[in-house]
Amino acid sequence: MTERDEESPAETPPGEASVAEGFRCGFVALVGRANVGKSTMLNRIVGAKLSIVSEVPQTTRFPVRGILHRPGLQVVFIDTPGIHKPRYRMNEEMVRLSTRVLREVDVVGALVDASEGFGPGDRFVFDLLRQAKSRNLLVLNKVDLAPKENLLPLMDEAGRMGLFDDIVPVSALTGENTDRLEGVIASKMPAGPPHFPRRC
Ligand SMILES: Nc1nc2c(ncn2[C@@H]2O[C@H](COP(=O)(O)OP(=O)(O)O)[C@@H](O)[C@H]2O)c(=O)[nH]1
Ligand SMILES: [Mg+2]
Fold first, then answer.
1. Which residue of 143, 171, 173 sits with most ligand 1 atoms within 8 Å of its CB, as the best mutation to test the pocket?
2. Where do the domains of the chain lie?
3. Interhelix angle for 92-104 vs 120-132, to 10°?
């Protein structure tokens, strides 16, 4: 997915191989209709440094929105052009582009507003995931606004869709359960060296 992929392992500078050992690095697309909390979530996970994304070398084919650095782990969050548009504006070419992106990342994080349940905008996104046959996790965001008794039926319904490996209720605003989300994402990253320098 990056230029690094074209390099042969022999080009790895001496000493770096041992640093990269046990390292995990991968790509995540955060998707969801407008206002479900994608930006808030990215800020929560990646932190305030998100605002300097312009300093990130854009070596991937998709725009990088933020990078999570942890010891032994790097998660690259990318943007998915076109996926937040209403259906009538989404032509076949855009659907093709979006589904290609969704298929190429290691995991797609689909966000919904748990306080509102699943609406047409959410189902539009779910349809794209189904077409893409991507690996997905569902983030039920805004649980601070959702009555607890609404959460279980929502998780049940999502489970029955057969689209999601994991379903994680969180609040991007308060930070409730976002550490668990981070753990779930981390567990899905493949082994491999970091794609970007530490200070991105
Ligand atoms: N109560 C609550 N509000 C949230 C949460 N996450 C995001 N918001 C609010 O929802 C609105 C839209 O969030 P934003 O991150 O811009 O959504 P985006 O369009 O998906 O990027 C903002 O006013 C956020 O403060 C949450 O977990 N709880
Ligand atoms: Mg946003």
1. 173
2. 20-187
3. 70
